[in-house]
Structure prediction request, 557 residues.
Amino acid sequence: MNTKVNLAGVILNNPVMTASGTFGSGAEYSDFVDLNRLGAVVTKGVANIPWKGNPTPRIAETYGGMLNAIGLQNPGIDVFVERDIPFLKKYDTKIIVNVCGKTTEDYCEVVERLADEKVDLLEINISCPNVKEGGIAFGQNPNSIEQITKEMKKRAKQPIIMKLSPNVTDITEMAKAAEAGGADVLSLINTLTGMKIDVNKRAFALANKTGGLSGPAIKPIAVRMVYQVANAVKLPIIGMGGIQNAEDALEFIMAGATAVSVGTANFYNPYATIEVVEGIEEYLKKNHIDNIQNLIGCVK
Amino acid sequence: MSNSKKKTVLIQSMDALTDDVFSMWLKDEEIAANATPGQFVSLYCNEGSRLLPRPISICEIDKAVGAIRLVYRVVGKGTEEFSKMKKGDTIEVMGPLGNGFPLDNEGKKVILIGGGIGIPPMLELSKHLTGEKQVVLGYRDELFLEKEFESYGKVYISTEDGSVGTKGNVIDAIKENGLDAEVIYACGPTPMLRGIKAYAIEHGITAWLSLEEKMACGIGACLACVCKSKEVDHHTNVDNKRICKEGPVFNALEVEL
Prediction:
């Protein structure tokens, strides 16, 4: 049984990875799961300098989902390089660093800083809805997506993943723009901008007023978008959005995703990633499928 | 691997202490063996639409029986679901989580302060401290757990409506009764903790405060439950500390409230 998948020349042992921001840099979850069993660990977004993030409350539960407005709190690239990369290097898993910034220059600085680090892929976050500058500002306009993708490709030594926002009218336009800019891989979807009001306090549930909706509630939207993008571009896709078990993951793969990320489910089930890995293996065995490649985009 | 695992445990009892405050004992030898006063557990709902664990402080630890007691207020649909569970049911739990109160107080004279649903963790703590213990409990109106503290120290009560004890808050009760101490331990709403911090600084008293904030993971990954710290934190590299991981108990001088 072959569960290996290929993302721009990087071969993952299996298609299951973590969604950025839901797994730290792996240390907290290494108490619960064997990181060697994951296809890749995608780190929480890192910027050129430390970011404090947003005021609290930063999260609110919604029906079958949650809103977050963490605001990309991160320790900055220096601490990340000294502490988090050496930690992840101890494991037989691929390392994908999620990169965030407020300006193009910020992104460039992080990508250049990582050029000589032993990380496998860079995921460029142009779709965070929770920061005023940067993030989603780059991700809702095809021209700016193409431009920033080109800038990243000029500087990066690793293959580049562009992470797309679902908060757009037509995600295939954004995907095509990233492809035109030279992206190697696409990941989708980031969270959907949402809002919750606490009627007892007559106030917003989040200090930031709005937050990114994630969790099982968004899965059908994410599967639809992966399917649309898979049929619009030639790039491999990392699918995510509400995956909590192997069946969910297989939906994304059959819609056209080469790999999948488990995100919010980590928060309520720290074993979720491993359960997805094992569930996919069981599915392949049960259905006598010897290579997971046969499932990628198999539903037309 | 850490001591914490997510597991299914048996509910030994479920009792209403007031209209909306409930007490339950959970049977688990491992959690009881590892728990210390001031730590919390994550409780998970059975209803699948409620994804996130509810962090609940540990009220009592019975290491001999291998059980922990949780006393919680019904504030939403998740805690309401817990309150309808019965003896013999099972519930998913992870813990113990976080860092509890420091117990090496060398017999110093202390005040333990609990405000509202911050009262329960002070009960287990009161059993572990040596030296003279004064217990100040602040309520809106209806009392709970107050009698259980009487074996461990002298109990002073404040109520917002003045129906029992001092009318006002816990600081009013401390002043009215002329209490003094070398160390304060407190858990309760942030405005109360802010007042206690100011009082402790003014009187040169060491204060340990247990904080709360909305959490997603409970294990330090999501960065939802941060508080402002005085210094740049070792882990986050900004002046934010994770309440679930570095806390929930902090020295008052470490945190900005």
Observations:
- Residues 5-49+72-192+213-295 of chain A form a domain with the TIM Barrel fold (CATH 3.20.20.70).
- The first strand of chain A starts at residue 5 and ends at 7.
